[in-house]
Design brief:
70 residues, 2 helices, mainly alpha
């Protein structure tokens, strides 16, 4: 496995793990925050960032594959 492929796989793995964790941070039993709105905001930011990265990453890979001759 080439170094860029390994880095991309690692980043995608982290993004996939962030999706369920972003929802879990809004649960009061999971994270006890002194500022209740902060955990909601962090959860939303993590979710949006993870989904945006995955969509962009897959889009770039599909675009590169479309340029490859059969």
């Amino acid at each position: 496995m080439a170094a860029p492929t390994a880095k991309r796989s690692l980043r995608r793995g982290v993004a996939v793990l962030l999706i369920p964790l972003s929802g879990a941070t809004t649960l009061p039993d999971f994270v006890e925050s002194a500022l209740p709105g902060v955990s909601d905001a962090v959860g939303i930011v993590l979710f949006v960032a993870a989904v945006a990265y995955l969509v962009g990453s897959v889009g770039r890979q599909v675009a590169a594959a479309a340029d490859t001759p059969l």
